Amino acid sequence: MSHPDPEAGRHYPFRLEGFRHWFATDSACLDYLDWLRWGEGFRCPHCFGTRFRRGSDGVRRCLDCFARCSVTAGTIFDKTRTPLTVWFEAAWLMTAAKPGISALTLSRLLPVASYQTTWTMLHKYRHAMGAGEKTLLSGDVEVDEWMYGGVRHNVAGRGSKKQLVLGAVEQLEKGLGRVRFGLVDNASGKAIQTFLTATIAPGSTILTDGWQSYRKATGGNYGHVATVERTSDDPAHVLLPGVHRVFSLADRWILGTHQGAVRREHLQSYLDEFAFRFNRRKAKHRGLLFMRLLEHAVNTPPKTYRDLVMTETPGSGVSLGPGGTTVPGTLEGSKRAKPWRK
């Protein structure tokens, strides 16, 4: 389900006080997910049937294929042992503040068993952010590369061993539009073309520097305006100001919120989070970002912890990380009266 024009105070809370009031119990959180996923009518995820019967436990049973369908099944919350009040609190903290929140800080704020739990929760939300951003960029779009990583001596430019990131930013009459990022192995025409096809709508105009691979990548699907830096009196950040500004902001965010501790195999997920928040920076209420994140969450297939930590680096394997197996506590409201008086 998608709400194109949601209203603050009706579809999502205004501020923290409203959030705490709306989602004080796990059952309220579950009902909100139910509304986001099936507010326009139930559809069985197995056979796409619309007829169902609701059991005493709230789980639907499809009357066409007789499958049991819970609200969280097939979403990022699938088989979670963490109470939904904790999941919702993490989503609010992740979206309410412009810099987001790190897993270490979140583990100190929520009643969870370990840092591993909050790391997994945030990465599942990032997975949903990336999967939900499918609308292609259009119009005039600046595209350039960014080298991510630590200092490597005697290695520089497009041939270095740092992680190569392609960025695309819409150029509007006033300011910047949406942004997308993509990790590539090299700056060849084929790699760039794959990124452009998945990111930018055909017929758009691509604004780049004079790197020859861009000419091969744009082909006949896009207009192309290339500015050769060596023939210009201006540096790259002046020729392509939008995409370089976004690269700078993303770099500062990683260094600030996450202290630069972002591994290359997880970089795409972090950039998806940055893009999700950047593309909604003009929202009047931060609660709208919270709602959009949960919309993506109930429409994104689940990923296990092992899926998240599995890397493509040879010999790296799976690291389960720190922490135990204790079930996290809940944030459901307590009826204790003035505990400080006792």
Strand arrangement within the widest β-sheet reads 6-5-4-7-8
CATH superfamily of the largest domain: Ribonuclease H-like superfamily/Ribonuclease H
Helix content: 25-40%
The secondary structure category is alpha/beta
> What is the CATH first-level class name of the largest domain?
Alpha Beta
Keywords:
37% helix; 3-stranded antiparallel sheet; alpha/beta; 2 domains; Nucleotidyltransferase, domain 5; 5-stranded mixed sheet; 342 residues; 12 helices
What does this structure look like?
The protein is α/β, with parallel strands linked by helices. The protein has helices spanning about 15-20, 25-40, 85-95, 105-110, 115-130, 190-200, 210-220, 235-240, 240-255, 265-280, 285-300, 305-310; strands spanning about 50-55, 60, 70, 140-150, 165-170, 175-185, 205-210, 225.
Question: Nutshell version of this structure?
Answer:
By secondary structure, this protein is an alpha/beta fold.
Q: What's the arrangement of secondary structure elements?
A:
Blueprint (H helix, E strand, L loop, with lengths): L15 H7 L3 H13 L13 E3 L5 E3 L5 E2 L14 H13 L6 H7 L5 H18 L7 E9 L14 E9 L4 E9 L4 H11 L5 E5 L2 H7 L4 E5 L8 H4 L1 H17 L9 H12 L7 H13 L6 H5 L33
Helix pairs in contact: 3-5, 3-11, 4-5, 5-10, 5-11, 6-7
